[in-house]
Design a protein that fits this description.
alpha/beta, Nitrilase/N-carbamoyl-D-aminoacid amidohydrolase, 5-stranded mixed β-sheet, about 15% strand, single chain, about 35% helix
């Protein structure tokens, strides 16, 4: 039984093997990251945001380790408990609770979100075309009060 899952692509959607690791009993997620090729803090901030999302998706603590970006301890509710400064050499220590169980996202994946987004797009597309087809042409094209 795995106690931790090593997530190498924290900015991508939760992969099937990550979901399988949660089912198999992974209790903590480890997220190594390296933003060396980015000169600003934008990509490290994006990676930290992805770690927060991953914590919410799985209901697990995420430990993010970065030689150049943000190292962090992210709680299962997505809150950042500890974070290093960008580019600093820090060692973060924290006692973390190991968690088990499944969240709706680890159970269902992206399916419900894809269906909901597709339905929303279909409704948004259908409404304007329905309004266009139900509009009637005025019987008198001359606006009221206009000089003839």
């Amino acid at each position: 039984m795995r106690r931790a899952y090593l997530d190498h692509a924290s900015t991508s959607p939760l992969r099937p093997e990550a979901r399988a690791a949660m089912v198999a009993g992974a209790e903590v997620l480890l997220a190594p990251t390296n933003a060396t090729s980015y000169s600003t803090g934008q990509m490290p901030a994006l990676e930290l945001g992805a770690a927060r999302m991953r914590a919410l998706e799985t209901g697990r603590v995420v430990l993010q380790a970065a030689p150049t970006g943000f190292s962090a301890v992210v709680d299962p509710d997505g809150s950042v408990r500890r974070v290093s400064d960008l580019g600093s050499r820090d060692v973060l220590t924290a006692t973390v609770a190991r968690r088990r169980g499944r969240t709706p996202y680890t159970r269902l994946g992206d399916g419900p979100f894809v269906v909901a987004a597709t339905a929303a797009l279909a409704v948004a597309w259908a409404l304007p075309s329905r309004r266009r087809s139900t509009r009637r042409a005025p019987s008198d094209p001359t606006p009221a009060g206009a000089p003839i």
